[in-house]
Amino acid sequence: MLALVLAIQKWRPYLLGRQFTVRTDHQSLKYLWEQRIETTAQQKWLVKLMGYDFVIEYKKGNENSATDALSRRFEEASITAISHPIPHWLDPIKEEVGQQIQVQTALPNVREEDGMVVPLPQTVLERRIKKRKAELLIHWQGLTPAEATWEVEEDMKNRYPDLALEVKSSLRGGELLCA
Questions:
Q1: Which of 60, 67, 63 is nearest to 3 (CA)?
Q2: Do residues 47 and 2 lie in contact, with contact meaning Cβ atoms separated by under 8 Å?
Q3: Which domain of life is it from (predicted)?
Q4: Is residue 121 classed exposed, middle or buried when 0-12, 13-18 and 19+ CB atoms within 10 A define those classes?
Q5: Counting Cβ atoms within 10 Å, is residue 124 exposed (0-12), middle (13-18) or buried (19+)?
Q6: Going along the chain, which residue ranges are E strands?
Q7: SS3 assignment, position 65
Q8: Which residue ranges in the chain fall short of pLDDT 50?
Q9: Using CA atoms, how far apart are residues 16 and 9, in angstroms rounded to an integer?
């Protein structure tokens, strides 16, 4: 039951307000709402599930081959997924402006890179070494310094060769140091 609660909490934004089906090879979960709940932990978990509209379907373990395969993962196998937003709002702007005019002239604080819109760096606020890699705290054009992000220095050199990579200023120990 804890696995069900944790899965539903993780996918909460997608599940709230919609009916969904939980498929399991755990037969007692099929009778979740009819069984006697005796421990306080189970009571708390059940309360967390009450706000969702779902149906539990039971499928025997040997018939549920997809679940069985997931439960028998190999240690050497590793799958990594990276996701990023795709700015579909940019397509109509490109069409309207036309192919001969660069999007950068219409949006001065960003540039198009591999089909993605990325902001341009303004200054380097700080430098650090993390996991044997030099990182820079980048203040991006059009954003506040509070929205600065840490980027790998080597990547920044490759993406923005004209960027001055020396730290503009930082506050350490109560005194202002300028580089």
A1: 67
A2: no
A3: Eukaryota
A4: buried
A5: buried
A6: 19-24, 53-58, 110-113, 116-119, 121-130, 133-140, 149-152, 169-172, 175-178
A7: helix
A8: 102-107, 170-179
A9: 10
